[in-house]
Design brief:
The structure holds 2 protein chains of 2 kinds. Chain A has helices at 23-26, 31-35, 48-51; strands spanning 2-8, 16-17, 38-41, 44-47, 52-56, 65-70, 76-77, 87-90, 106-109, 125-128, 151-154, 170-173, 186-192, 196-198, 206-211, 215-217, 223-232, 235-244, 252-253, 256-257, 260-265. By secondary structure, chain A is mainly beta. In chain A, the strands form 4 sheets. In chain A, strands 5-1-6-8-9-10-11-12-13-15-21-18-17 form a 13-stranded mixed beta sheet. In chain A, strands 4-3-2-7 form a 4-stranded mixed beta sheet. A two-stranded parallel sheet of chain A has the order 14-16. The mean pLDDT of chain A is 96. Classes of the chains: A mainly beta, B alpha/beta.
């Protein structure tokens, strides 16, 4: 695997849209060619080389390419957008849309990321060592197809609206989350090892949520359904089981109504 | 002598009352009295007659004082600002007509700007929810003639839309509602005992920030499923009772306002409220309608959606329209420092935006087009006073139920004053020359 490193040298005055920073776009290019790729600051089109030093070389395919992003990229959007293979390491904090619409490969964000990370993710892995913002693994505005595959792991906390319209895949948050999780979900699995606030699983059709900490306010649409012994993410324990959202539509399989499940650790 | 101008449209709130009568002097220059309007509407007409009104553009000087300049100079300044900026924000639009909005959008396309209207801090969340699950709605005429179940959720029309209840929702006697308010049941959901709530058959005093839970409980109650004993501060018996009242009507309508769109849950509250409406249609005919604030905020959404495909928070910086509130919405752009010029028209972000955003406006090159002196005109570098739309200029406006109504010109503006549209045409023509477009 070949490695290419981009290092921030000239901070943008506004925010920079760098949707070309992905193994798919870099594959088969030399450092000089990569530095010529277009990035956007407001309505002005510039080159990647104007803002970043580009060193190393890319592999012949995306799967053969690893990108290391260095320096302060707090004002850079769309890192790793639509990537399908390969690897990417972001050494500091990044702005919105990290790994949005990604279908494969791995992203490791060593800092925190802002909102809309892994929007409508289809596959691959996104690991965030800091905190994640709002709308992690959610659908894009107006779309009813959220995250459908892959795995998102967050070591810190996450914001609100995570996993909105989720269809599949897995989100694991080590810390706490804000309101609304897996709203409108029709599949997938969300594990929250910390506390949740309220509106957990609202309008959920199908899918599973596991909460290890507390829930401030339960949704009235989730009905108690006993207790179960489970092993979740390597932790064994007793969980209170709820089914819901009772107000929402649900599918039937073999004559049985399929509800979404909410498990809260006791 | 005076002359009476009839069938005047009130350019204040989204109810867009169309039965006003205005007494004006014979030369058509002064308004003497306004009939049929509510106190806010009357004030809007009479305010235009103020003797200390600003009638010429004013440019802020380095020492904070103002220098009067001509409309030509103001148009040149505005065009220069739009041409130089990398990411200008054009915000407002809700208190002007659709013709001016359309002209403004031409400027936005030329300058590759972000365009946003007041829905961003108002019913924008409604528009997100509508995109997510649709909107079973109707016109206010249908409410007047058919509705016998009225819900006001998180809104207080007694103060914010004063004639809404008498013209459409509670008191009028319509074709199938001959007994007026006597055969209408009113349910009000509000954490405060408002003047609207005092008139309700049932007032559900929901715990603040838990509208989403209560709406969800309504859906569960409609399906006859299990509920916890208390939801959002309301005992379950009361929720089942209210659900039965709504189910038993012939035609129902949910009106909702800022109390649900901008409290915790935001777009999800509306999403769930629309789902409640949808569920109620299993039993009877039910509709839902946002209580839009500015008289033409609905029109701005219509024009923006018609021209760019999205109703607010449109980002044209890359030459095509993008929309993602949270990224392209005014508050986020300003508080994150993602704009470098501010153009305000027909609204007052200085009074309604968070302080850090207002501070940002004061630091940027900024133009405010507004007939009034407002906090926004106070922090903007250039203030361009224009004729009052709906009083001194006509044009298309959209009522809260998406019905277009042509506003009327009642009197002449002070001599030499331009309308929003006339000023925007001057800016567009200059910008075209600067950009080398024919």
């Amino acid at each position: 695997m070949e490695t290419i490193t981009i290092t921030m040298k000239n901070q943008p005055a506004l925010y920079l849209e760098a949707d070309c920073v992905s193994p798919d776009a870099f594959a088969g290019m030399t450092a000089a060619q990569i530095a010529e790729l277009s990035v956007y600051e407001g309505n002005v089109t510039g080159t990647l080389g104007k803002y970043f030093d580009v060193t190393g070389s890319a592999g012949t395919t995306a799967a053969d390419t690893k990108i290391i992003v260095r320096g302060d990229v707090k004002k850079v959007k769309y890192l790793g957008m639509k990537m399908s293979a390969g690897e990417m390491v972001i050494e500091g904090d990044a702005d919105m849309y990290v790994g949005a619409w990604m279908t494969g490969g791995k992203i490791l964000a060593k800092g925190s990321v802002d909102a809309f990370a892994a929007t409508a993710m289809k596959g691959g892995e996104l690991t965030i060592e800091g905190n994640a913002g709002n709308y992690l693994g959610a659908a894009y505005r107006g779309d009813w197809r959220g995250m459908s595959g892959g795995k998102i792991s967050v070591k810190g906390n996450a914001g609100s609206d995570i996993g909105m319209y989720m269809l599949g895949g897995e989100i694991v948050i080590n810390g706490n989350i804000d309101v609304h999780v897996a709203t409108h979900a029709e599949g997938g699995k969300v594990v929250i090892k910390g506390d949740a606030k309220s509106k957990v699983g609202g309008q959920m059709v199908e899918g599973d949520i596991y909460i290890f900490g507390s829930i401030d306010i339960m949704m009235p649409g989730f009905k108690p359904a006993g207790e179960v012994e489970l092993e979740v993410e390597g932790t064994k324990g007793k969980f209170a089981h709820f089914i819901g959202d009772m107000g929402e539509r649900h599918k039937k399989k073999k004559g049985q109504v399929i509800y979404a499940n909410l498990y809260k650790k006791i | 002598m005076t002359k009476i101008v009839t069938d005047v449209i009130c350019p204040f709130c989204g109810t867009l009352c169309d039965d006003l009568e205005v007494a004006a002097t014979d030369d058509g220059k002064k308004i003497i009295e306004v009939y049929n309007a509510c106190v806010i509407g009357t004030e809007k007409f009479l305010h235009s007659q103020a003797s200390d009104r600003v009638t010429r553009p004013r440019l802020m000087q380095a020492d904070g004082s103002y220098k009067e300049i001509s409309y030509d100079e103001a148009a040149e300044y505005t065009a220069q600002m739009m041409a130089k900026a990398k990411k200008p924000l054009m915000y407002g639009w809700s208190s002007t007509n659709c013709e001016a909005q359309s002209m403004g959008h031409e400027i936005a396309e030329l300058a590759k700007a972000c365009v946003d209207n007041t829905a961003a801090v108002c019913h924008g969340t409604t528009l997100i929810a509508v995109q997510d699950i649709g909107l079973p709605t109707c016109t206010l005429g249908e409410v007047k003639n058919r509705a016998d179940r009225i819900v006001f959720w998180g809104c207080n029309p007694a103060h914010a839309h004063p004639r809404h209840m008498s013209r459409y929702s509670i008191f009028p006697r319509g074709f199938f509602t001959g007994k007026g308010h006597k055969n209408r049941k009113l349910v009000v959901v509000d954490p405060r005992p408002t003047d609207t709530a005092k008139m309700a058959d049932i007032h559900l005093q929901v715990t603040q920030g838990q509208d989403y839970e209560l709406l969800n409980a309504f859906r569960v109650a409609l399906k006859g499923e299990w509920l916890p004993d208390v939801v959002a501060g309301i005992p379950k018996e009361k929720i089942y009772e209210a659900a039965d009242i709504l189910k038993s009507g012939r035609f129902g309508i949910i009106f909702f306002g800022m109390g649900v769109t901008q409290s915790l849950g935001k777009n999800h509250n509306i999403d769930e409220a629309i789902a409640v409406t949808k569920d109620l249609n299993d039993y009877t005919k039910f509709s839902i309608m946002p209580m839009r604030g500015h008289y033409n905020v609905t029109g701005s959404g219509e024009v923006m959606a018609w021209q760019f495909g999205y109703p607010y928070s449109v980002d044209l910086t890359r030459g095509f329209a993008r929309y993602n509130p949270g990224d392209t919405s005014s508050i986020d752009l300003l508080s994150r420092g993602d704009v470098d010029a501010m153009f305000t028209i027909g609204s007052d972000p200085g009074a309604h935006f968070p302080f850090n955003c207002v501070k940002k406006i004061s630091e940027l090159p900024s133009v405010c087009i507004d007939p009034h002196l407002t906090p926004t005109s106070g922090v903007s570098k250039l203030h361009v006073p224009v004729a009052f739309n709906g009083v001194e200029a006509g044009g298309s406006c959209y009522r809260m139920d998406n019905v277009p109504i042509d506003c009327r010109k009642v009197v002449e503006p002070p001599e030499g004053m331009l309308t929003d549209e006339q000023f925007l045409i001057m800016v567009r023509d200059r910008l075209k020359k600067m950009k080398g477009v024919a």
